[in-house]
Amino acid sequence: MTQSNAAEPTVLSFKNILFKYALLPFICSRLFVIASLLASRVIVSKTHPTYSRTLLVNKQGIFAWDAGYYKLIGSSGYGLKSTSVLRFFPLDPLIAHLGSVLSGISAGDWMILISNVASLLASVLIFRLARSVFSLEVAKNSVWIFFLQPASFVFVMGYSDSTYVFLESAVLLLLMSKTPKLFWLFTISFFCGLTRPTGILLAAPVLWVGLFGNGKLSFSFDPIRFMKFLLASTGAACGTLVYLIWVKIRFGDMWYPLSVQTTSGHRGAFSNPLSNVYSNATGVLHGHFGEALHVPWILLAVLLIVVTWIKLPSYWAFFATLTLVAVLISHNLDGFERYVGDLAPFTIAASLLLTRSKIKELLLAAGGMIAFLYAELAFLGLYIP
């Protein structure tokens, strides 16, 4: 880790970051998504495809794919649907349901609102994370990369990813302090554990800091300090456990949300990550172009892991590494770009590389084109986010 580029960084207010650095990329990303949705509908109307998934996804629009499940759960809960929907964790749909009851606005609209507001707030926290270690330019580019990554269109749809990134970034930012507030670490991690299955991985950076600190990597074991951080690290597990206990009470098997994920129709069984990458790379030979799209991003993710361990705080790198491994050992790599794009350390590592490039403006423009293309493919049912 190095902090030489961020010696005594200027502390910018939330308002300054929001209006000077976050709002423009936020708006641009939404324009890209709207344009891609409109373009996809023009394509469908002109070509009249017979592929049923294309017709369904294109009709659903911003409520397509998993966003449709979150909308239904927010509207009517889990009870009227099959147990397969239990893989969607309850924080966002619960907020949407409560918001709908109190305001009269539909749960679907609340999901869209939550996703967009949370992504904007997450971008502010990512800026602060990047600025705490690197230059202002790296922080600015981090926000652009966050909104222009391949799967960034899900931050516009009613997915839980925006909330996850916001909570994840809040935990990492709290850990930057010399004396992290353990109550807030536990509380925010608890809500992260209610957001998605991988939320439990937020325990990793908390434990790491408890063992090695948040500065230069060193091991000087302090039992009292470690026990405090160990307690704080249980927040994510407690959040997940609360949901699993409710599932046990309601449906009789507390492991449904996790076991459903390992079925062939979803993440699939655990397997060798090298075999997964090879299978996806050769998928294009069998007409599985969507699988082949994952390969360049897998290679980039491996490069970014190296960058995080060399340049970023060690507990960021540890968290990012565990998450990448957790994604790669799943047989089905659909959504790989989304899971990796949710990692604030990866976003900042990519920004560090971009900022040092002599063609960064060209790369950002290419990022916008890629973001548009992936959204287009998703709205045409050709790419699974």
How would you characterize the overall build of this protein?
This protein is mainly alpha-helical and 385 residues long. It has one domain. The chain is built from 18 helices and no strands. The protein has helices at residues 14-47, 52-60, 66-76, 91-103, 107-133, 136-148, 161-174, 182-193, 203-212, 223-251, 256-259, 273-282, 289-292, 294-311, 314-328, 336-341, 344-355, 360-379.
Write the layout of secondary structure elements.
Layout (H helix, E strand, L loop, with lengths): L13 H34 L4 H9 L5 H11 L14 H13 L3 H27 L2 H13 L12 H14 L7 H12 L9 H10 L10 H29 L4 H4 L13 H10 L6 H4 L1 H18 L2 H15 L7 H6 L2 H12 L4 H20 L6
Key terms:
385 residues; mainly alpha; 68% helix; globular
**Low-pLDDT regions:** 1-8
What would the average pLDDT be, to the nearest integer? 89
Strand segment tally: 0
Helix content: 55-70%
Structural Rg: 20 Å
Quick summary:
The chain is mostly helical and 385 residues long.
